[in-house]
UniProtKB/TrEMBL annotation:
<feature type="signal peptide">
    <location>
        <begin position="1"/>
        <end position="26"/>
    </location>
</feature>
<dbReference type="InterPro" id="IPR039564">
    <property type="entry name" value="Peptidase_C39-like"/>
</dbReference>
<keyword id="KW-0732">Signal</keyword>
<feature type="domain" description="Peptidase C39-like">
    <location>
        <begin position="34"/>
        <end position="173"/>
    </location>
</feature>
<protein>
    <recommendedName>
        <fullName>Peptidase C39-like domain-containing protein</fullName>
    </recommendedName>
</protein>
<dbReference type="InterPro" id="IPR038765">
    <property type="entry name" value="Papain-like_cys_pep_sf"/>
</dbReference>
<dbReference type="Pfam" id="PF13529">
    <property type="entry name" value="Peptidase_C39_2"/>
</dbReference>
């Protein structure tokens, strides 16, 4: 009798007919990651080309080499100047207009900027696009394995976990052997200012 009452409670009465609820629509996955072709950056200043290549690999197997991407990005021994260059190369190489430059000038970022970043991560990963972030990591705010100095760097965001509020990073620098790792979202948001990201 208790089971019958529970069933009726979950049902709906339509025009005098008892209608049982249909199977629930599947909720979005709490954890989602992209399959990518990971490569370590081949020079100390190729993080931009390597991170861009990792992002491209989520969408295509027709991947340029890091030297070719460095030429497209205008990368020099001083690195890749601005995230907008990554946006241009991602869109050109994928034949899309998906990617946009997202600036995060406020340090610390505003709640609005953090909300936009999280929404961009979920939307992009759900649609099969990896993000590229340009970060500034001071010694007191390092991802795992970073040397004890301020690091100016590009890496790729390839997944998210909504329950743990973390993101999966493919880090071309391979600091301390950490190639692909999970990072708290709040830490990611604190690393991007005053730079930006491609999403």
């Amino acid at each position: 009798m208790i089971r019958k009452l529970a069933l009726v409670t979950a049902a709906v009465l339509v025009s005098g007919t008892l209608v049982l609820p249909s199977a629930a629509t599947a909720a979005p996955a709490a954890v989602k990651t992209l399959n990518v072709d990971y490569q370590v950056q081949v020079t100390g200043y190729y993080c931009g080309p390597a991170a861009t290549r990792i992002a491209l690999s989520a969408r295509t197997q027709n991947l340029p080499g890091q030297d070719d991407l460095a030429a497209q990005l205008g990368t020099t021994e001083n690195g890749t100047d601005h995230i907008s260059q990554v946006v241009t190369v991602l869109n050109n190489d994928l034949g899309t207009t998906w990617y946009e430059t997202k600036e995060m000038p406020s340090d610390p970022p505003s709640q609005e900027q953090k909300d936009l970043l999280w929404n961009d991560i979920v939307k992009d990963i759900d649609n099969g696009y990896a993000l590229v972030a340009n970060i500034v990591a001071p010694p007191d705010n390092h991802p795992p394995g970073y040397p004890n100095e301020t690091i100016y760097h590009y890496f790729t965001v390839i997944g998210y976990d909504t329950d743990a509020r973390t993101v999966q990073i493919a880090d071309p620098a391979n600091f301390g052997g950490n190639q692909i790792y999970w990072l708290g979202f709040d830490q990611l948001a604190s690393l991007i200012p005053p730079k930006g990201y491609a999403a």
